Amino acid sequence: MAVLVNNNVRTPVSTNNSNELPRSEYWINIGVNVNGKFISLNKGGIPLDRVEKIKINPNSDNKEWIAQAMLHNNLVDALLQGANQLNWGEHQSLALSCELIKINNPAQVNQTNVEVPSVDSLMTQLFQ
Fold first, then answer.
1. Residues of the domain holding 78
2. Residue 64: left if φ>0, alpha if ψ -120 to 50, beta else—which one?
3. Is 105 exposed, middle or buried (0-12, 13-18, 19+ CB in 10 A)?
């Protein structure tokens, strides 16, 4: 996987509609490296600066969900920090996992204690 920072990404932006978001600055592309060339699975990538953080209810009793939400938010922060360190047009391969899922039955939730990696820890893992 790679974070792609590219000014020339084809993102439709109209200056006539004030409700439209500005063009994203940071992108994650999913794909493979073949013979030194990154082959993207999708055309436009995921606009990283539009990935929403999860709002955590401090009154929730579901500790596992809170830990997963905190990890999600830390991951978003770590990726944005790493992307912000790139020069314009620069690419960076990352140590991310990609998961393929075929949904059949709802997932079962296990109540366990989960440690939430910090943003700094995620930065170290992602940008090896």
1. 2-126
2. alpha
3. exposed
Q: What is the pTM for the complete model shown?
A: 0.63
End-to-end CA distance of the chain: 13
Tokens of 7: 């000014």
Q: Pick from 80, 88, 67, 90: which is nearest to 126 by CA?
A: 80
Number of separate domains in the chain: 1
Distance (Å, rounded) from C-alpha 122 to C-alpha 45?
Answer: 21
Q: Each residue's pLDDT tens digit in the chain (128 positions)? A: 444 444 444 444 444 455 677 788 899 988 888 888 888 888 878 899 899 999 999 888 999 999 999 999 999 999 999 999 999 989 888 888 888 888 776 655 555 566 777 888 888 878 87
